[in-house]
Design a protein that fits this description.
Length: about 325
């Protein structure tokens, strides 16, 4: 198992380097950092523009490969992602935004995966019954609704509930209230009240996705010979389904779980925008709009590393769930 994971890790590191280099070169060839200064009123002098761009390693007059080399050297030697176009530390900006996204996405991902797997397995076990048809209908209904529409739609029940009780129980904008931001008891309660609605918005979509995949994989397992053998040996139906059926059905889901978390980490752009959460998704889009090459490259590297970690997590989960991986495909 260690050799298997080591080989996979080496492959992922190479892919991270390739993806990050390609992302930087693509950003350097398509984004124009000079645009910010060209449209400024009054426009700075050419010498001032050149110096400002040189200070942040985004001068288009320098070859892209040269700028990539400087940026990569700083990342490898000092773990420094560089400066934004406004000459602010990218490390500090990402460090703040990563925790914003993590608070928003971690709970939603856990709820979405756990509930989605349970709902999908239940739907498969009760195939073609009214419960299966209901779950299928609701899942496809949720999946057919755009993310931003679902987010906006969930705001209305929260507002209606607040009006009904006569106080703001759920907040629908921002990470915390005015003057908040601490971690005392009252501040934590305030953060939770801001967290509930956007978390539900993300979790509902994940439940719909996971339930569909889990239902399909569970149906493949239900007709397997080893499950019928376990029942023939006297194992109760529920125990056989959980111990043998669900565990096997989750093997192909391990990869999906891992990579889905990575994708949502930088892909919750609409949710962050709608609810005013200044996380990594918003940072990525704003960096592209600002023609900020170094920030875009930093997010690409961050995403590539997350994919690496997700791949390792998926491989580890796969090895833990499937004994054939641990034994190199040999029979015990």
């Amino acid at each position: 198992m260690f050799g298997f994971l080591s080989r996979r890790f080496a492959n992922y590191v190479v892919l991270v380097i390739i993806a990050t280099s390609f992302g930087y070169l693509l950003a350097a060839s398509t984004l124009n950092p000079r645009f910010k200064y060209d449209t400024a009123q009054p426009r700075p002098s050419e010498a001032a523009i050149t110096k400002a761009l040189d200070d942040v390693n985004m001068n288009p007059d320098d070859p892209s490969l040269v700028r990539l080399g400087r940026w990569a050297k700083a990342v490898v030697t000092d773990f420094d992602f560089g400066r934004t176009l406004e000459n602010k530390s990218i490390n500090e900006e990402m460090g703040r935004r990563v925790w914003v996204s993590l608070r928003l996405l971690l709970i939603a991902s856990i709820l979405g995966s756990v509930i989605g797997v349970a709902v999908g397995a239940y739907s498969a076990v009760n195939q073609y019954r009214w419960s299966d048809h209901t779950i299928t209908f609701l899942s496809f209904l949720v999946l057919s609704i755009p993310v931003f529409v679902l987010g906006v739609a969930l705001k209305q029940p929260a507002i209606a509930f607040n009006d009904a009780v006569g106080t703001s129980v759920f907040y629908i904008q921002g990470e915390y209230g005015a003057g908040g931001g601490g971690w005392g008891w009252s501040a934590i309660v305030d953060r939770v009240r801001h967290l509930v609605v956007p978390t539900v918005s993300l979790a509902i979509g994940l439940i719909a996705i996971y339930s569909r995949y889990q239902r399909a994989t569970m149906l493949d397992v239900l007709g397997s010979d080893y499950l019928r053998t376990a029942r023939a040996k006297g194992l109760r139906r529920r125990k056989a389904l959980i111990k043998h059926g669900l565990r096997t059905a989750m093997i192909p889901m391990a990869t999906f779980f891992s990579y889905q978390f990575v994708l949502i980490f930088i892909g919750a752009i609409f949710t962050e925008k709608i609810f005013g959460w200044h996380g990594m998704g918003e940072f990525f889009i704003d960096s592209i709009n600002d023609n900020d090459i170094s920030s875009v490259a930093a997010v690409v590297l961050f995403s590539a590393v997350l994919v690496l970690l997700a791949g390792l997590l998926a491989d580890f989960a796969y090895a833990a769930l499937d004994p054939r991986v641990r034994t190199g495909g040999k029979r015990a």
